[in-house]
Amino acid sequence: MTYYLIKLLLTSTVVVVISEVAKRSTLLGAVFASVPLVSILALTWLYFDTRNLDQVARLSINIFWLVLPSLSFFVAFPVFLKNQLSFALSMVLSLAIMIALYLLMTLVLQRFGLRG
Question: Which listed site, 6, 23, 32, 73, has its alpha carbon 20 to 30 Å from 105?
Fold first, then answer.
């Protein structure tokens, strides 16, 4: 139980720190947010939980391929905001685009034999 609390505290601290830094400097907040901290933590926790290097490597490769559709969010969201859509609608539409591209990417990856 202590291990899970440590994981939870460390992971949530990263999110809080990034949001607090972004209040002061969006550029510095973006630098911290763009570093794949969540992925690094997930790879680390998976390794410590399983000691399975093959599983860690597969997760890393899958993260790489799925970063590509996630980038659509960061293109669509500011475009919607700059076109005077509300924050909530911009968020929903950007997430919908990203989710659709995630689904498409998973189908493409499965077609080429890359599985979890």
Answer: 32
